[in-house]
Design goal:
single chain; alpha/beta; Rossmann fold; 7-stranded mixed β-sheet; 10 helices; 7 strands; 22% strand; binds S-adenosyl-L-homocysteine
Length: 240
């Protein structure tokens, strides 16, 4: 099967609309770049094309229907661009900022946006809890994160970036229910002005397997205390 057939098959298996030629071309181009750079710099442990399609692209796109039209989106801890690059390709209406503390990952995201002429994504190198980064970036309708931290840490990093009424989307795997239970035992949501979390789970279908994936959605209902986010050492040492 060639790339566009693999992409169509995985999209279809996972309930996404069939990709048109232009979309398939962009994903093919990004895959080529990702796998080439990955030979030199370690960006991802997922190295074969079918797995990249399902575990990076389709996984990223399965949260797209939770993002309102024309939203301003921040992806905290984007790594080599997940979920932000697939979302920017799939949803030209979105304005996305991809943030990561590792400069070489952001250099890769920047190169990718240039190669793909993605003009709805800006990549920024920095830490989410850094006050100067917060000042520079401002507020967002949606904050996404995949595989970055546990939920109470994520709430402290994500909620301060949201407008009131905006939402954070934390992408999680099979242990999602336990993570939400743990969050509800702490004080993070109350202290940070978050809503009751809602969970949505689904199966991510690969060629011959299925894995549980899901998203925790938390709205920002009230302002966060000005002391949040704290310095990273304090966040980790005494989670809320
Ligand atoms: N979201 C990507 C990468 C996950 S790895 C994916 O799913 O493939 C977690 C990433 O979060 C790393 O690249 C790390 O540099 C970044 N990160 C962790 N804490 C961060 C923080 N406080 N601010 C910004 N980036 C952070």
């Amino acid at each position: 099967m060639d790339f566009s057939q693999l992409l169509s098959t995985s999209f279809e298996k996972n309930g996404l609309p069939a990709p048109d030629t232009a979309l398939a071309r962009m994903f093919a181009c990004f895959t080529e770049h990702l796998l080439a750079v990955n030979q030199i710099t370690n960006l991802t442990a997922i190295r074969d094309v079918p797995s990249v399609i399902t575990k990076h692209y389709v996984d990223s796109l399965l949260i797209a229907d939770a993002i309102p039209t024309n939203a301003r989106v921040l992806d905290i801890g984007c790594g080599p661009g997940f979920p932000s690059i697939p979302l920017a390709i799939f949803r030209p209406d979105l304005t996305i900022v991809s943030l990561d503390s590792t400069a070489k990952k952001i250099a890769f995201v920047k190169e990718s946006t240039n190669i793909l002429s993605l003009n709805n994504l800006t990549a920024i190198s920095g830490r989410a809890e850094d006050r100067s980064v917060m000042k520079e970036l401002g507020f967002f309708d949606v904050v996404t994160s995949r595989a970055v931290a546990n939920l109470s840490v994520l709430c402290e990093l994500c909620l301060p970036y949201l407008k009131i009424g905006g939402k954070m989307l934390a992408m999680k795997g099979a242990k999602i229910e336990d993570e939400v239970d743990e969050l509800l035992h702490g004080k993070a949501i109350g202290l940070l002005g978050g809503s009751e979390p809602t969970i949505r789970t689904w199966q991510l279908f690969s060629d011959n397997s299925a894995e549980t994936r899901g998203v925790v959605e938390i709205f920002k209902e009230k302002e966060c205390g000005k002391q949040y986010p704290r310095a990273y050492a304090a966040i980790i040492k005494s989670p809320l």
